[in-house]
Amino acid sequence: MSEKQIYTLYIYDEFRCKIAAEYVQHELRKFFPSIRDSEIWRQLDPDMSKWFDQSPTLFPVRDFWNDIHGISMGFKLKNMVPLLTSLNISWKEQEVPLNKLWFGTFFHELKKNYNDISMNKVKQYFTSKENLKLVDGLGDHLERESSGAAYCDSYSILVMLKKGKVSYY
Q1: In a shared domain, residues 76 and 105
Q2: Same domain as 48, residue 111
Q3: Is residue 143 part of a domain?
Q4: Residue 144: which domain range?
Q5: Is 35 exposed, middle or buried (0-12, 13-18, 19+ CB in 10 A)?
Q6: pLDDT band for position 70 (50/70/90)?
Q7: Is 103 within a domain?
Q8: CA max distance for the chain
């Protein structure tokens, strides 16, 4: 461990830091939907990436992970930092087919709770004849909602492989 590295090595893993910074970039677009100018985000995104060790006003490494925790836990109730910094969790970037995903969430627009349901079951629900009218209305609703917000659909999603299931996080 070098003089500069005062924490355990996996805290410095560039890929983990990249995931954390991109997560914050994605979430901040939700927090500030009125900032729709992509040029503004092109200026802000690199600043967030510099929180780790290049910000003149933040304490290197410690403030980065504290900021990630504050945003993920404080705003979204997602305990991201232990997942991103745990030695026994490995991270890799790969494409995951949609039919491999499982959900454990409440779909507000559908007023339905899907707890531990496969993407295939969700797809069956949305494509069933009795739900076609609902799906059409939902598409219009989502388009109206997203038209007033910053574009944030180009970010990767975080998924977890646990007990053979790939769950969206």
Answers
A1: no
A2: no
A3: yes
A4: 98-168
A5: middle
A6: very high
A7: yes
A8: 64
